[in-house]
Amino acid sequence: MGPQQRLQLSPELQQHLRLNPALVLQQTHYQRLLELSNEEALEELMSALADNPYLEEDGGTESSPSDSPVPEASLEELASSDQPPELLRTEETTEYDIQQNPFAYYTMFWHAPHTMSSPEESDEEEEPWEPEERQSLYEVLWKQLPLLDLSPEERLFAEELIGSLDPDGYLRESVETLLQRTNARIAELNYERLTTHQTVQPSDNPAWRYALDPIAAHLVLNRAIPNVSLLTPLTLEHAERLLKRLQRELDPPGVGARTLQECLLAQLEARPLQTEAERWAYRILQEAFPALTRRTWQELLRHFGGQLTPTMLQQAYEVIRHLNPRPGVAASQEPPPTVSPDFTVTRDPETGELQITLNDGILPTLNINALFRRLQHLQRQSSLRHINPQARQALRRNYVVSRAILTALQQRKHTLLAIMTAIVKLQREFFEYGPAYLKPMIYADVSRETGFDTSTVCRAVANKHVQTDFGIFALRELFTEALPSASGEEAISVEVVKQKLRELLEHEDPNKPLSDMQLARKLHEMGYKVARRTVAKYREEMGFPPMWKRKALR
């Protein structure tokens, strides 16, 4: 190295961006659990509990989640440990127990002490009450088939029909498709019957293999078909008549209909038409159904050339109105879906303050399995650490996932409580006085209040419900846009305007329904500045038809 050359060292700062796989996994579980309701989160956690051996449900005893290394314990130390014996069992202890007690192997699985109860105690114990099992539409109809006078071929068609119904009780497939499937089943049953009565013995004839199929043997070997009663395929005319019969004889009548008109006619034909109003209702459905759907009453009166009076039309319409357009829903005995609130907001009777409760009691309390945690920190020379690399990698992966789930659960609870607290603060009047005091609120308002990102607020609000003194509401219903008031003061929530519009529509004169313009004027008089197009939009969203369809018969 020459005199002019010097080796100089200078410090230099550099930044490197590197993703931590554990943090990424934790964030993934956190976002997933945050957007689930408590019931959905329960299913997710129970699935993880079944798949991950590191996770266990806390049975009420507190266990230390510390991950500090634990030295390998001796048999004496293991015996004196406070851990459950089934968690501390090793190969050495198992072999020792089996030598001392031949039944020790069974106590590994049935370690709970067996206690015999006295007859008095057993008599006092009552079986837990269980609700009656609900039956679906298909089960209700299936039980009725033996009560109908059907031939075997017709029974097969009825089974295909029941299996093809939608939840409303309608047949969405063509009769030709049902007929093809029915005749295919008839052909299969005929083949089984012929094969069962086949008595041909093996021979040297090379065509003997065709004898396994009686029909092929009849065509190739000119052998007579066995004398067996076979089912007769159905024709399209027979299938149409049978479908019409089933629509009227099955309960509820109208199931299996292909159109609304066919469904309503089947319900009237299933009962005797005793009154004149019922007979006119049948004629209207059969002859003037398009005019009925349009509710053009004058057209209906002109269609029957003066034979039908307005009074009789009113009575016939009442008969039709009480028919069931969705017979499958009425027949199904399945319970309606219930909503379990994720939050409860109540008022403290003493202080008057609002109290927020996160109803996460159904979620299991998860911990890291004590045995797996102990095995993980055993000394490397231990025989229990000698496992193949694939198993070790799987255990390591399960351990990382279990830690991520536990941390994500804690973050979920903290985030949900913080966001719900902000919502209650912004909508305090709603929780104190009811839905009429709902204020405009968007996700950005809660984001500014809590410091969370807007996407986090959206995930936390999704699929969540809150129970208040005025009922159960979805959290999404509390986020509404703002409409300017007629007086120019504070903006009004869209849901409040919809509620006022609903009251106007429900209490209007049936003979003189209000137009959208009249509804807009009335809302303006009440202090809500809403345009006619906005009124029409809200009316359609709430399921109210236009004025000409709401007009009652005169």
> Tally the helices: what do you get?
26
- Stretches where pLDDT is under 50 for at least 5 consecutive residues are 61-98, 101-124
Number of strands: 8
Structural class: mainly alpha
Strand order of the largest sheet: 3-2-5-6
Q: What proportion strand? A: 5-15%
Tell me the distance between the termini.
Answer: 115 Å
How would you sum up the global shape?
A: flat
Helical percentage? 40-55%
What is the arithmetic mean of pLDDT? 76
Q: What is the CA-atom radius of gyration, in angstroms?
A: 37 Å
Largest sheet: 4 strands, mixed
Topology summary:
Elements: H1 21-34, H2 38-51, E1 55-57, H3 75-79, H4 91-100, H5 104-107, H6 119-124, H7 137-142, H8 152-163, H9 175-196, H10 214-220, H11 236-249, H12 260-269, H13 276-287, H14 289-294, H15 297-303, H16 310-321, H17 327-331, E2 343-347, E3 354-358, E4 366-368, H18 370-376, H19 389-426, H20 428-433, H21 443-450, H22 454-461, E5 465-468, E6 471-474, E7 482-483, E8 492-493, H23 494-506, H24 516-525, H25 532-541, H26 547-550
Parallel strand pairs: 2-5
Antiparallel strand pairs: 1-4, 2-3, 5-6, 7-8
Tell me what the structure shows.
Among the domains are: 137-258, no CATH class; 264-333; 343-378 and 388-478, no CATH class; 485-550, Arc Repressor Mutant, subunit A (Orthogonal Bundle). It has a 4-stranded mixed β-sheet, with helices on one face. The protein has a two-stranded antiparallel ribbon with strand order 1-4. The chain has a two-stranded antiparallel sheet with strand order 7-8. It is 49% helix and 5% strand. The protein has helices at 21-34, 38-51, 75-79, 91-100, 104-107, 119-124, 137-142, 152-163, 175-196, 214-220, 236-249, 260-269, 276-287, 289-294, 297-303, 310-321, 327-331, 370-376, 389-426, 428-433, 443-450, 454-461, 494-506, 516-525, 532-541, 547-550, and strands spanning 55-57, 343-347, 354-358, 366-368, 465-468, 471-474, 482-483, 492-493. It is mainly alpha-helical.
